[in-house]
From TrEMBL:
<dbReference type="GO" id="GO:0070403">
    <property type="term" value="F:NAD+ binding"/>
</dbReference>
<feature type="site" description="Important for catalytic activity">
    <location>
        <position position="140"/>
    </location>
</feature>
<dbReference type="InterPro" id="IPR006176">
    <property type="entry name" value="3-OHacyl-CoA_DH_NAD-bd"/>
</dbReference>
<feature type="binding site">
    <location>
        <begin position="10"/>
        <end position="15"/>
    </location>
    <ligand>
        <name>NAD(+)</name>
    </ligand>
</feature>
<comment type="similarity">
    <text>Belongs to the 3-hydroxyacyl-CoA dehydrogenase family.</text>
</comment>
<dbReference type="GO" id="GO:0019605">
    <property type="term" value="P:butyrate metabolic process"/>
</dbReference>
<feature type="binding site">
    <location>
        <position position="143"/>
    </location>
    <ligand>
        <name>NAD(+)</name>
    </ligand>
</feature>
<feature type="binding site">
    <location>
        <position position="119"/>
    </location>
    <ligand>
        <name>NAD(+)</name>
    </ligand>
</feature>
<dbReference type="InterPro" id="IPR022694">
    <property type="entry name" value="3-OHacyl-CoA_DH"/>
</dbReference>
<feature type="binding site">
    <location>
        <position position="92"/>
    </location>
    <ligand>
        <name>NAD(+)</name>
    </ligand>
</feature>
<dbReference type="Pfam" id="PF02737">
    <property type="entry name" value="3HCDH_N"/>
</dbReference>
<dbReference type="Pfam" id="PF00725">
    <property type="entry name" value="3HCDH"/>
</dbReference>
<protein>
    <submittedName>
        <fullName>3-hydroxybutyryl-CoA dehydrogenase</fullName>
        <ecNumber>1.1.1.157</ecNumber>
    </submittedName>
</protein>
<feature type="domain" description="3-hydroxyacyl-CoA dehydrogenase NAD binding">
    <location>
        <begin position="5"/>
        <end position="183"/>
    </location>
</feature>
<dbReference type="InterPro" id="IPR036291">
    <property type="entry name" value="NAD(P)-bd_dom_sf"/>
</dbReference>
<feature type="binding site">
    <location>
        <position position="97"/>
    </location>
    <ligand>
        <name>NAD(+)</name>
    </ligand>
</feature>
<dbReference type="InterPro" id="IPR013328">
    <property type="entry name" value="6PGD_dom2"/>
</dbReference>
Length: 283
């Protein structure tokens, strides 16, 4: 199972980062989105990241050009017809993901591995709509993708050892560290991270401390690079709520109930950094 050509679905924050690291590692990447404007925005972010690397002396101007030349535009899922790996980083919605995987199963050759960057949706359920559940796998990158070392690799119920090994090798080629995880709600990363963030929101909700104090305790006391409320803003409060709901529903345990303050902020449209306001205000 040699992977050479890759198609990434979704040119947002995660998809563009994934396309960038694939191109940096020498893979030919098609970056797919529904509309040209989304693709253009993704390429802009990649170009900005690479330009910063050139400024800091980590890459040459030639390397930057080579990396950008390895990324091509795709506005049609049929472009997946000649790739060895698809990494889907579309919106976190089971119906949409299943629809994409159904189409990919028709379009791609039999050897193609279909990976999803979902942060919490069951891999097994996505795989079940295809005729190749053995070749469906989770490849969960962390944000910001070019910086964070981890890729959580999630085996669906039917994922074969051969497919796991191919994705593990691919991850190492991307200069990332693969960690193997089984398919349970939130996997490992979000099963542990999101309840911590949710608890930080409860701490604010109950008036135990100010938002600044809560973040300061976790930054200076636990050596976290960002406090939990700042991190929630960075991830997106809608995403945090969505993942808490998946944990709550998936385990049926009240310890995962989302904090009412989190719901209130999401209803207000205060989704964090991306909307200019979450727990903090962003200019
Ligand atoms: N893209 C590319 N590079 C970036 C970047 C981005 N979006 N953001 C920061 N960087 C780079 C900067 O260029 C900088 O590199 P140099 O110093 O070599 O120039 C380096 O990262 C550090 O950045 P800063 O000095 O601006 O700021 P910082 O020291 O606070 O680091 C951070 C920024 C890496 C984001 C750090 O704050 C951090 O690690 N935060 C926590 C991130 C985290 O927990 N991510 C996981 C989120 S959960 C998730 O992704 C999974 C999920 O399913 C929800």
């Amino acid at each position: 199972m040699t992977i050479q050509k890759v198609l990434v679905i979704g040119a947002g924050q995660m998809g563009s980062g994934i396309a960038q690291v694939c191109a940096q590692a020498g893979f030919d990447v098609k970056l797919n989105d529904r509309e040209e404007q989304f693709y253009n925005r993704g390429i802009q972010v990649i170009t900005k990241n690479l330009s910063r690397d050139v400024e800091k002396g980590r890459k040459t101007e030639e390397e930057k050009t080579e990396i950008l030349n390895r990324i091509s535009k795709s506005l049609d899922l049929n472009d997946a017809a000649d790739v060895d790996l698809v990494i889907e980083a579309a919106v976190e919605n089971m119906e949409i993901k299943q629809q994409i995987f159904r189409q990919l199963d028709e379009i791609t050759p039999a050897h193609t591995i279909l990976a999803t960057n979902t942060s919490s949706l069951p891999i097994t359920e996505i795989a079940a709509v295809t005729n190749r559940p053995a070749k469906v796998i989770g490849m969960h990158f962390m944000n910001p993708v070019p910086v964070m070392k981890l890729v959580e690799i999630i085996r669906g119920l039917a994922t074969t050892d051969e497919v796991y090994a191919a994705i593990e090798e691919m991850t190492k080629k991307l200069a990332k560290v693969p960690v193997e995880v089984n398919d349970f709600p939130g996997f490992v990363s979000n099963r542990i991270l999101m309840p911590m963030i949710n608890e930080a929101i409860y701490t604010l909700y109950e008036g135990v401390a100010t938002k600044e104090a809560i973040d300061e305790v976790m930054k200076l006391g636990m050596n976290h690079p960002m406090g939990p409320l700042q991190l929630a803003d960075f991830i997106g409060l809608d995403t945090c709520l969505y993942i808490m709901e998946i944990l709550h529903e998936g385990f049926g345990d009240s310890k995962y109930r989302p904090c009412p303050l989190l719901r209130k902020y999401v209803k207000a449209g205060w989704l964090g950094k991306k909307t200019g306001r979450g727990f903090y205000v962003y200019e």
